[in-house]
Structures are given as C-alpha cells and as structure tokens.
Amino acid sequence: MTSLNGDTHWNRVWLELTSDLAGKDEQTQVLRTRNKRPIDDETWAHTLRTVASQMELGPDDRLLDLCCGNGLFTLGFAPLVDTIDAVDISPQLIAALRARNLANVTAHVSNLCEWQAPEAAFSKVLWYAGIQYFPEAEIVVLLRRIRQWMRPGGMLFIGDIPDRDKLWDYFNTPERQAAYFDGIARGQRIIGSWLDRRWLEQLCRAAGFVAACAVPQDPRLIYADFRFDLSART
C-alpha cells in the first residue's frame, strides 16, 4: 500500500497551534470559530444532534473518529455507541481527550497517513473538518484505506468539507482573493483543499463504497454557507 507522509505544512500548523492549550476554550483549541469567536454551546449541541442523526449512531456501533482533535465529537457520541477509536496528530489534544477517562474510548496520537487499523473493524467512521488538510493524492489513498477498515453495511461521514463551488463566495473581496493566491504561491492554501462534490462522490465509489452522496449542511451549523457534508455506505 502506498506510503504517505501527510501534508507537512498542515502538520506543522496543527502541532504549533496545539503546543500550548492553556487559556483556550475547547472550541478555540480546534479552531471551531467564526470571525475568531468560538461556536456557542447551543449551536454545538445542535451540531452534535445533527451529525449523530445523519450517522444513524446506535449502541452496537464501533466508531472511528479521524482527526478527532480534543474529542468534542467523541465526548458527545461515547454514550451512544459501543466503542470509539479516536485519532489525531496532536499529543496535547489527545491528552485532553484521555483526561476525560471515557471507558469506551481509545485515543491514538498519530499522523493519519501512518495510522493502521484491522480490516472490517468499524461500523461507522467520522472524518469531520479534517479532510481539507490533505492534498488530493492523499485523500484518494486514505479513502481506500478507510474502506478497508469498515464493515459491510457501515457508513463513512465526512463533515465540514470546503465547497469548491463556493470558493469565490468565501474569497469575496480583492484582499481575500489576494490572500488566497498568496497562500497557493507559498504552498499554504487558506483553509486547505477546497473539494468538488461530484469528485468526492466518484472517489468514494471508486474506493469501494456502494453509495456516496454529498449534501448541503444544516443552515444552523457554523460554516454552512461554504461547506458541505458527505455520507458513503459500504
């Protein structure tokens, strides 16, 4: 299987951002903010309910939470499922998750491109607000790996995907557009990879998922104006 190193720029960004969590609220720790303000508790609770419903989580599920950060999804979903394996590159964020002492959660510090799991180990996989930190070549290989890790009849949910069709809705001023192109020139794309819905649907099918469907986000979610979600079934 292809060996990957991960996007070294984004690896550095996240390791630097999370090297010291002191004084940061849980949402700011994982950059779940809008105009530098963290998501409020009510909106976050709605986010958890929405994603849990979309994933059809149940007590028999073995869930894999990729790019889990400090485990805010893991914390919300642990009472709903059998077990969760949670993976993130940041030792500090994983330490924050481990400090919660959730009995049915195993937390792993790892670059996702290097992490391995047994075949058919998971019924559900969550990859939320993480796919954009990988270039397209690595997304292709990772989705093939994720498919191997999943049981028949399972679901992959990829959330908070920057929508290529809405790129210029976000970079909507000359200053923002200049910053966008400057980032590309430096190899440091703002927000990361902006993805095409149909491209991602087709990739999931090519990777072995039997169905894949991109959907608009619930309008109450923090980034719904320029991101989308996708579910794929095995």
CATH superfamily: Vaccinia Virus protein VP39
| Name given to the CATH architecture | 3-Layer(aba) Sandwich
Give the structural class.
alpha/beta
- What is the CATH top level name? Alpha Beta
- Write down the CATH topology: Rossmann fold
Q: What strand order characterises the main sheet?
A: 5-4-3-6-7-9-8
Number of helices: 9
Estimate the helix proportion, in percent. 25-40%
Indicate the low-confidence ranges by residue numbers: none
- What general form does the structure show? globular
Order of helices and strands: HHEEHEHEHEEHEHHHEE
Q: State the distance separating the first and last CA atoms.
A: 20 Å
Assess the beta-strand content as a share of residues: 15-25%
Integer tally of domains: 1
- Biggest β-sheet description: 7 strands, mixed
Average pLDDT, rounded to a whole number, is: 94
Radius of gyration: 17 Å
Brief characterization of the structure:
Helix content is 35%, strand content 23%. The protein is an alpha/beta fold.
Question: Explain this structure to me?
Answer:
The protein has 234 residues and is α/β, with parallel strands linked by helices. It has one domain (8-18, 27-32, 39-233): 3-Layer(aba) Sandwich (Rossmann fold). The protein contains 9 helices and 9 strands. The longest helix has 15 residues, at 41-55. The chain is globular, with a radius of gyration of 17 Å.
How do the strands and helices of this protein lay out in sequence?
Elements: H1 8-17, H2 26-29, E1 33-34, E2 37-38, H3 41-55, E3 62-66, H4 72-77, E4 83-88, H5 91-98, E5 105-109, E6 122-128, H6 136-149, E7 150-162, H7 167-170, H8 174-185, H9 197-206, E8 211-216, E9 227-233
Parallel strand pairs: 3-4, 3-6, 4-5, 6-7
Antiparallel strand pairs: 1-2, 7-9, 8-9
